[in-house]
Amino acid sequence: MHKVFISYHHDNDQWAKEEILDLNQEHQIFVDGSVDTGDISGELSDEAIRAKIRDEYLKDTTVTIVLVGLDTMNRKHIDWEIYSSMYDGAKNKKSGLIVVTLPSTGCINWFTSHDGEKEALYSDHKGDWFSIENRSEWEERYPYLSNRLIDNLVAAEAKISVINWDRFTRDPEGMRFLIDATYKDRVACTYDLSRDMRRANS
């Protein structure tokens, strides 16, 4: 099993993390490596924040699940966790990322980036598959995703899948597949880290 970090807005979306952990306890899908990073000072430099999160909090986790609710994109600690997950450090290497859109967003769209993902998670989908051509289309389809996530979805080399809550949680074996595929592809990911880290909530 892979060690997973779950990044989410604690005040709004604690319920979602607890449901995933309940599902995991029943089916033994992953090892939970989540810890609260909320006590890190925003007065530190970007590099110091990144190092602290990557080397002390994320440690040996290899997959980060980002739970996206209505206010996730505005939270500095979530941005720091995403950035640190993407960072390929000397002590702890970059993780693969899975983005899960929560029911509060009203998002029913999904995006696949791994071999075999369509067959494993969307075998019941009878509609057409199509590519998203530009950033404005990403922003229109996923208005609650942060700029950092959009930066990396635009860059095909990042290999980030986006899945809605119902799809992610309805099939434990599908969840297991997606975590494993994300783990396997993480080394090949080329993340865009050019955006400065968020310095305040909004």
Based on Cα principal axes, name the global outline: globular
Helical element count? 8
Corresponding CATH architecture: 3-Layer(aba) Sandwich
Radius of gyration: 16 Å
- Class of secondary structure makeup: alpha/beta
Task: Quote the average pLDDT.
Answer: 94
How helix-rich are the residues, as a percent range?
40-55%
CATH class (first level) name: Alpha Beta
Elements, N to C (H/E):
EHEHEHEHHHEHH
Largest sheet: 5 strands, parallel
Can you tell me the CATH topology? Answer: Rossmann fold
Question: Uncertain regions: pLDDT < 50 for 5+ in a row?
Answer: none
Q: Proportion of β residues?
A: 5-15%
N-to-C span: 36 Å
Description:
- The chain is α/β, with parallel strands linked by helices and 202 residues long.
- The protein is built from eight helices and five strands.
- A five-stranded parallel β-sheet has the order 2-1-3-4-5, with helices on both faces.
- The mean pLDDT is 94.
- It has a single domain, classed as Rossmann fold (3-Layer(aba) Sandwich).
- The protein is globular, with a radius of gyration of 16 Å.
